Amino acid sequence: MQYAWLTDIGDLLTTVAQQNPQIEFLVLCGHTHSEANVCYSNLAIEVGQAEYCRLEIQKIILV
Q: What is the residue extent of each domain of the chain?
């Protein structure tokens, strides 16, 4: 179920980004056990990497 849901959200985000090329989208996800960063023309998706019992700053974002 979760993988189908994640695919649906990914498809939705991609569609919305394509329909709004003037907007830059940044999606910050939870974590997985390996880092994953995806970047399209106006859609960036970042997923942090995690290890059990090791807290770590993934990235500093300046606004």
A: 2-49
pLDDT at 17: 94
Q: Which two tokens stand for residue 37?
A: 């960063």
Size of the chain in residues = 63
Q: In whole angstroms, what is the distance from residue 32 CA to residue 52 CA?
A: 11
DSSP string, 1-63: -HHHHHHHHHHHHHHHHHH-TTS-EEEEEEEESS-EEEE-SSEEEEEEE-BTTB---------
The pTM of this model reads 0.70
Look up tokens 């056990």; give the residue: 33
Residue 24 has pLDDT above 60, yes or no: yes
